[in-house]
Amino acid sequence: MSTPASQSPPAPSMVWSSGDYADVADRMIPALGARLVEIAGVGAGQRVLDVAAGTGNAALPAARAGARVTALDITPELLQAGAQRAGDAGLEIAWIHGDAQALPFADAGFDRVLSCVGVQFCADHRAAATELLRVCRPGGRIALIAWTPEGFIGQVLRTISAATGASGGPGGPGGPGATLSPLSWGSESGLSELFGSERAARAVVCREHVEMPAASAEAWVDYMAAAYGPMVRARAALHPSGAWEPLRECLIEIAAAHDSGNGEAFAARAEYLGAVID
Ligand SMILES: C[S@@+](CC[C@H](N)C(=O)[O-])C[C@H]1O[C@@H](n2cnc3c(N)ncnc32)[C@H](O)[C@@H]1O
Fold first, then answer.
1. Residue 99 CA: which ligand 1 atom is closest?
2. Cβ(18) to ligand 1 under 6 A?
3. Which of 165, 223, 222, 228 is nearest to 16 (CA)?
4. Which of 100, 117, 171, 187 has its CA 20 to 30 A from that of 54?
5. What average pLDDT does range 68-94 have in this prediction?
6. How far apart are CA 119 and CA 258, in angstroms?
7. What class does CATH assign to 12-213+269-277?
8. What is the number of the ligand 1 atom nearest to the C-alpha of 128?
9. What is the chain's Cα-based Rg?
10. How far is the CA of 262 from the centre of ligand 1 (A)?
């Protein structure tokens, strides 16, 4: 498979508004936000920030737990969908359009700073980590869920990056933090680079997984290529030269290798790292 020359990356909001991310979150990771709220120890009355919140996968359960929630994202379409959901559920959440690399909040303003497979897709990973630390109050907690490099989505993202020539992974190309990649957020060594070795050594981490259902490995890849922004963009970029088909075959192999194998319907087992950083 030939690797096209690198081009300047699309704006992240263009990546994440391609396809139908709201549907991906509902089908593939419906329980992940609630799990993050649980590991973060979110409680009533806390000031909680959900960074790269998308449609509110973590923000909604945090609000349900009685927290005062702010949800920030760079993609207006996802914020609008999240606000609609919150309204339908009678939950009050402040939806802020902004960049995780330059958060529009004062220092130390939040008791809990969350990100569910979100901030790992920023371009400048160091800037984003610095911002999470800045807005979290002393004694507060940062809690993250991130795809691991060796897990299913880690392998998918790396394979797409290699095929498209994106330097830092889909949705998170180069930039000043280019020695890091989206998958740095999913390993202890990456957390150490992002947050410093002392803080990372105190972090409480867990490795867990979600099961991503589809009719088959092929159906999973075809669904994601129509709905998951980074894959939608990869398919659009590679299809004209005929390079999408070989990538699709590779992704189907990866998906099949992660079938949880319960003998019934296909479900890909996707590992993530949960981390709580004080
Ligand atoms: C995989 S989605 C995760 C969304 C949500 N947290 C969830 O659990 O469904 C990644 C999100 O990161 C957001 N994002 C990417 N770069 C960003 C940036 N620089 N600042 C804020 N949000 C960003 C995208 O708009 C998208 O909503």
1. 20
2. no
3. 228
4. 187
5. 98
6. 25
7. alpha beta
8. 19
9. 18
10. 31
